[in-house]
Amino acid sequence: MTSKKVIEVFYDVVSPYSWLGFEVMCRYRHVWNIELKLRPAFLGGIMQGAGNKPPGLVPNKFMYMMKDLTRLSEYFGVPLQKPSDPFEAMFQKGSLSAMRFVTAVQEREKGGDKQVEQVSRELWRRIWTEDKDITEPASLAEAAMKAGLSDSDIEEALKLYTSKEIKDKLKNATQDALNHGAFGFPMVVCHLNGKPEMFFGSDRFELMAHCIGEKWLGPQPNKSAAKL
Amino acid sequence: MTSKKVIEVFYDVVSPYSWLGFEVMCRYRHVWNIELKLRPAFLGGIMQGAGNKPPGLVPNKFMYMMKDLTRLSEYFGVPLQKPSDPFEAMFQKGSLSAMRFVTAVQEREKGGDKQVEQVSRELWRRIWTEDKDITEPASLAEAAMKAGLSDSDIEEALKLYTSKEIKDKLKNATQDALNHGAFGFPMVVCHLNGKPEMFFGSDRFELMAHCIGEKWLGPQPNKSAAKL
Question: Closest chain B residue to A178 measured between Cα atoms?
Answer without folding.
Answer: B60
